[in-house]
Amino acid sequence: xxxLDFYCQCENVLFMGNKILIDIQFKRNHLLQNGFDLTMSLxxxxxxxxxxxxxxxxxxxxxxxxRYLFELKEDDDxxxxxxxxxxxxxxxxxxxxxxxxxxxxxxxxxxxxxxERLLAKFxxxxxRIEDSVLIGCSEQHEAWFALDLVLxxxxxxxxxxxxxEMETELKGSFTKLRKALFQLNxxxxxxxxxxxxLLRWHDAHQFCSRSGQxxxxxxxxxxxxxxxxxxxxxxxxxxxxxxxxxxxxxxLLARQSSFPKGMxxxxxxxxxxxxxxxxxxxxxxxxxxxxxxxxxxxxxxxHWPFPNSSLMIACHATVKPGQTEIQVNLKELEAAGWFxxxxxxxxxxxxxxxxxxxxxxxxxxPKLAIAHQLIKEWVEKPSCSPLPA
Length: 389
Ligand SMILES: NC(=O)c1ccc[n+]([C@@H]2O[C@H](COP(=O)([O-])OP(=O)(O)OC[C@H]3O[C@@H](n4cnc5c(N)ncnc54)[C@H](O)[C@@H]3O)[C@@H](O)[C@H]2O)c1
Ligand SMILES: [Mg+2]
What we know:
389 residues; alpha+beta; Nucleoside Triphosphate Pyrophosphohydrolase; 3 domains; seven-stranded mixed β-sheet; 21 strands; disordered N terminus; binds nicotinamide-adenine-dinucleotide; binds magnesium ion; NUDIX_hydrolase_CS; NADP; manganese; transit peptide
């Protein structure tokens, strides 16, 4: 809601439930007097009355957005209401609807009305909209949902036959996410990977593992409940460590036989139950290349949707300079080796997922993958000072 719409209607504040919109003039004076930066988007907040004063706690756009999403996850009625003014990303058997222009893909959004028309046209029950999952919202609190037009549909055979007609109607194509991910902008890529992971999780958790009864999704899709024993199931991610090992001058890259031809990456592996991140890094490096980690340093993390939802935890690690002889575990890897700073820097510069390197040179994972960021960090600062493992 635009703050300026209410400028003439209020003195200092406009109350909306427990939220307030502060009159822009009041805000400007107040912030100027207090030396705040006016470019900060502080206009929503919480008010309480103390004696003759109103106390305001201003909240940033990020905080109000987060609180709004929390409310939609907790309150089915609020979430259903948000669908009226919300927008929907569409999927078909977990492939998102995309529109292509040149090398780039875009993910179109549809209003509730457009979605109802589409479902009616293809003979599907509009009740299906309740299968959609909440994946985010705009700064103006337009809620964003994702719906798979085929999964869980009672008329799934029919729906799959209608795929091409739907694509024509929607002026796009349902494209495998693996194929499109690296040609999407970061925001769409993040929303679509979240959406796909959540839709896949719901599809795979239709029944209670204790009672065998069908589970019921809440409106936002943030959980499923078994009506007979009230067990609540929440969407899950598997923790995975990804480690770039260095001996001080070179870094260790490896490939699995399932990787695209010529691609090398950092070492990765699922955490075992009961393990800390540090223990998982030490074990994976020992298991896959037969080396003992000496120091490690956390870098960053990333949600990764393939093949199921993982939380990738990225680290830099070192081994002792004298103990660098690799023993590749051929059950896990096809090849592994040490690469010089120059070799990796050159590969990083030339890296292009559309024209994979010719003439036997290796190439690295694309920018959106955390492995790429880890390798880039090492190239830019090869001698970081990690902690003992
Ligand atoms: N985003 C990135 O930059 C990036 C880079 C590399 C790998 N990855 C991802 O990391 C993941 C793990 O890498 P990996 O394949 O080398 O792991 P890994 O070395 O642990 O080997 C995989 C094997 O581990 C076992 N395993 C144990 N727990 C598992 C679980 N929860 N789910 C599936 N298998 C389990 C299975 O036997 C499987 O075959 C892969 O899914 C891959 O997609 C992401
Ligand atoms: Mg591995």
